[in-house]
Design brief:
The chain has three domains: 25-207, Glycerol-3-phosphate (1)-acyltransferase; 227-291, no CATH class; 296-395, Pleckstrin-homology domain (PH domain)/Phosphotyrosine-binding domain (PTB) (PH-domain like). The protein contains ten helices and 20 strands. It has helices at 15-36, 60-67, 84-94, 106-117, 142-150, 162-165, 188-191, 196-207, 278-291, 381-395; strands at 38-40, 50-53, 72-77, 97-99, 121-124, 154-160, 178-186, 233-234, 238-239, 242-245, 248-251, 257-260, 266-268, 303-313, 317-329, 333-337, 342-346, 352-356, 360-364, 369-373. A seven-stranded mixed β-sheet has the order 1-7-6-2-5-3-4, sandwiched between helices. A seven-stranded antiparallel β-sheet has the order 17-16-15-14-20-19-18, with helices on one face. Strands 10-11-12-13 form a four-stranded antiparallel β-sheet, with no helix packed on it. Helix 1 (15-36) crosses helix 2 (60-67). The longest helix has 22 residues, at 15-36.
Length: 405
Amino acid sequence: MEKKNKKKKAKWIKPRHTFFRNILYPFVSLLCKIKYNIKIKKCKDKRQLLVVSNHQTTYDQFFLGMAFKKHLYYVTNDDLFSNGFVSWLISFLVKPIPIKKGTTDVKAVMDCMRVVREGGSIAIFPEGNRTYSGKTEAIKESIGDFAKALKLPIAIFHINGGYGKHPRWSDKTRGGKMTAGVSEIIEYDEYKSLSGEELYKLICDKLYVDEGIIDGEYPSKRSAENLERAMYYCPSCGISEWTSEGEYAWCKNCGTKIKYLPTKELLCVNGTFPYRFMTEWYDAQSNYMRALDLTPYDATPLFSDTANLYEVIPCKKKIPLGEGIKFSAFSDRFEIDFGGRTETVYYKDITASGVLGRNKMNYYTQKRIFQIKSDKHFNAVKYVNVYYHALSILKGDTQNGFLGL
């Protein structure tokens, strides 16, 4: 009888992951403390866990790693895996689990279950994005079913002060302090009888953080710089364009000028401004977009920017498709002007879109991933917002429509 040779699937978990984690730990720990002045509460629970955390800074994964003795396998945006040798090195050292941003990625779920079967712990940021406003962003409902499928104790990890210390739209950290640690562990027996939706609501409630408060001072001489990456709404003008320098930001249309204070408060220096914190202003911007009539933008673009276009090949590379293209958002489509040749991408043909890093944008079709990248002032939020708002209009739910991120 002829024997069938079946190739044994290599294990996800390798001894080197823990080895390199332990080697790098002292250096990463010192870097985090120097850069973020953070105090991290250690977790003494040595069991397999599903760690869920709110998301505020680019170092959040390191904060989690400092809190646990065991190596954690992070669910990470697949864009991380498209940077050649650096991506290969990260994968070799710690083996994160790639997921397509803004989508329900079945393969990512299967990979997580595989890690759990091999005895590993999973770490995930259910928002899928760092907050732009200081308030916990929308969490996908699928986190409830995902957690139930893994059947692990759920460690609720809180990061506080991250928005004050380093807002997502900023390149610079500020003075001040941060704290992080596990606030509680929800045992499997406590949630196994809950539906996926009920567990989703519980996780949302447990993770919620709102930094639209005075909780200390975060001094910086460049506190407002690059705020225009997040904001495109002016309470006086509606859709607008902002610019910034040092501690100040101002509307290019009407000249309204605000100062970003060390307390995170917004102070208008040449009139009145109705919002005290970024959380309030960002919510007002979202509500304005949800109420915006897009029909005037059938032929005239709502937004346009000069940018570079790439195709992202997951876990491999990014292919340049156009440099200095004109990228525009209309009522029902994106248009890409290559200088004499225009391509149209209708929203109905896009499966998801999201902001990466501080101000890059990805949009996904059925089989391909594209990335828009511009200069340091580029606002990617507005394009993701208008895309999701257009979808909400089609669905007839603009009041509570999800605007992405």
